[in-house]
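Entry 12.
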Amino acid sequence: MTTAPMDAAARRAVKPVICYPNNSLPKPDLDLYRTARAGAQKISETLVEPRDAGCFEVPAGYFFRISSVEGAQVGDLNLWNRDDLKERFYSGKTRALHGTHITTGERMWSSFPQMRPMATIIEDSLGWYGMDEFGGSVHDVIGTRCDPYTGNLLAGSQYHHCCHSNLIRALADHTGMSLSEAEPYVHDVLNVFMCTGFTRDTGQYFMKASPVRPGDYLEFFAEIPLLGALSACPGGDCSSEHSSDTAACFPLLVEVFAPKEGALENWQSPALNGYDQSHGR
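Predicted 3D structure (tokens):
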């Protein structure tokens, strides 16, 4: 059975089928969101230092923007329901619904059993990048986050300022949890500004220098009350390595904006997923 069959070429030529056609997904009202954003006022900001992470809170119906402010820098983003940390960003399902990278009009979806939109991207200053000749694009939901366990496995290292550890420290500091209590809540990320893809020959995850410039931003509408944590990756622009004390790294800025009263008309947070959870019993 390990020998290619006579019809191997025909089997390879079978056309693919999209696993989750997304035409029936509820469409965000971008015109409403953008109109509300135009009159919104900034209420807070968090400057995330290089090789570190910070937390921020966004009420439902508010906006938040992640910006590059000094130099090319990527960030690893975790999101939770501010009122129930068990509901958190589900990168795998977001990838299945929207693709390997997300941009304007696409959403960050939450974990089971809630599975609903957490945040909607309303503006992306790197939307022009598209997909390059290597199959690379920005804002991926395929990478997991750099972490000390993989570093130890591959290189025997004990590196403490990778994104996984940064996010743990930030969440622990913000909530009062211990590091061991916080770690299980840290999850796969949205790699903000990171330029990534899969190699065509081996299918390996690759990274390349991010096209992000000072002033570039990714802006979101909070569909539910959010607690966010953002790590300014120790890889900087991730042009060569991602767990490093030598890469040039820069801060990232998170700003939160409140819309004017009545600007969102009759908007409501998305309901919990409608599946009855009987699971056949």
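Annotation: The mean pLDDT is 97. The chain has six helices and 13 strands.
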